[in-house]
Specification:
Radius of gyration: 34 Å
Shape: rod-shaped
Largest sheet: 3 strands, antiparallel
Number of strands: 3
Distance between the termini: 107 Å
Length: 137
């Protein structure tokens, strides 16, 4: 009878230890995940701020670029589009006779033309450009 009580006490003690280990493991896991998530969120926030600043800086550069040296057209002959290209310049507009129309895409740093910009460049290069007049009755 005493042996049976010892066995029962050992089984109950082991069961209690397993439950306590499970609960403490779950608690430790939650704390570790919380710390990891805080680090990940912090890094993602820093990255988002960095990207946002780059976008804003690019937009500012686009807006002031006609006034910078070596810009391919006079600022007074440029119209800002933003998308799908940054500017369209009408060379000769100041003299009231347009001799050339130039599409201008402003890039900074190592940025490249995107797919749409490349397709516009190809359309212009292959002379797939035309003029249409639209009248409203």
């Amino acid at each position: 009878m005493v042996n049976e009580i010892y066995y029962i006490l050992i089984i109950v003690a082991m069961f209690v230890m397993i439950i306590l280990a499970f609960i403490s493991g779950k608690s430790i896991g939650k704390r570790v995940m919380y710390e990891i998530m805080n680090n990940v969120i912090g890094e993602e926030r820093k990255d988002a701020i960095k990207r946002s600043r780059a976008v804003i800086g690019g937009q500012v550069n686009e807006q002031i670029s006609p006034y910078l040296p070596n810009f391919p057209a006079e600022p007074s002959e440029c119209s800002f589009l933003g998308k799908p290209v940054d500017f369209i310049a009408f060379r000769g507009l100041d003299e009231k006779y347009v001799s050339e129309i130039v599409f201008i895409e402003v890039k900074t740093g190592k940025s490249q033309l995107n797919k749409t910009e490349k397709s516009i460049k190809d359309a212009i290069k292959n002379k797939r450009v035309r003029f249409e007049e639209y009248r409203i009755d």
